[in-house]
Amino acid sequence: MSRPPRATVTELSIPGAYRIEPHHIPDRRGHFYEAFRAEVLGEALGRPFPIRQVNYSVSRRGTLRGIHTTSVPPGQEKLVTCVRGSALDVAVDLRVGSPTFGRYEITRQDEGSGIGVLMADGIGHAFLALSDDVCMNYLCSAEYVPGTMIDVQALDPEIGIPWDLAGEPVMSDKDRAAPTAREAAAAGLLPGYADCLAQYSALATGGRA
C-alpha cells in the first residue's frame, strides 16, 4: 500500500487551536484514512505532540460537557475526535490576556469523518452530543494531575456559544455549577496567556515550563 496522503492541519481563529481533516481513501471494502501522524502535527505546532494518556467519554443525546481546560503548569493539550455518533465540538480561548480571550470555534464531528480538533494548553473544550451513545476520543499530551482541571460554564451568555438546544441539556452537577469565564478570571482560576506561551516554548525545546 502506498503512503496515504497527509491530513490537512489548519490553525483556527484561536491561535493554538487546530482542525485536522484526514484524506479518505475509498475502495470496495470501505475506506481508510490516517488520523494522526506525529511529524505532520509537529510541523504545524512547531513542537512535538507526545501522547501520554488516552481517554474516552460516552454520552447520551443532549449531553453537554465542558467547558474544561487544565491549569498551567502542568497543562494537558488534547486532540479530540468523535469515534461514534455525532457531536458539536467547541474550542474556547480561556487564556487571560490573550487577544482572542473568550472566542470560540465550532467543529461538527461525525464518526465517519475522522476530523479532530487539537487544543493547546489554556484552550477550553466543550461538546454537545447530537446522537445517542456518542463516543469521543481524547489524545492527551500529559497525564492528568488531580485537582488541576478548570471548569467554565458552557452556557456562559458572554461567550455565547450557539448550542441550539432542543431542551434542557444533560450536564454533570459540576459543569452546571461552573462559573462564567468572567467569574473564573476574577477568581484567578484561569491560566495566563504569557504562562501558556512560556509552556509552548518549553515544549518546543523538549521540556515543560
TrEMBL record:
Q: Which Pfam families match?
A: dTDP_sugar_isom (PF00908)
The organism's taxonomy opens as: Bacteria, Bacillati, Actinomycetota, Actinomycetes, Kitasatosporales
- Which keywords does this chain's UniProt record carry? Isomerase
Tell me yes or no: is Isomerase among this UniProt entry's keywords: yes
Annotated family? Belongs to the dTDP-4-dehydrorhamnose 3,5-epimerase family.
InterPro entries from the UniProt entry: RmlC-like, RmlC-like_jellyroll, RmlC_Cupin_sf
Protein name in the entry = dTDP-4-dehydrorhamnose 3,5-epimerase family protein
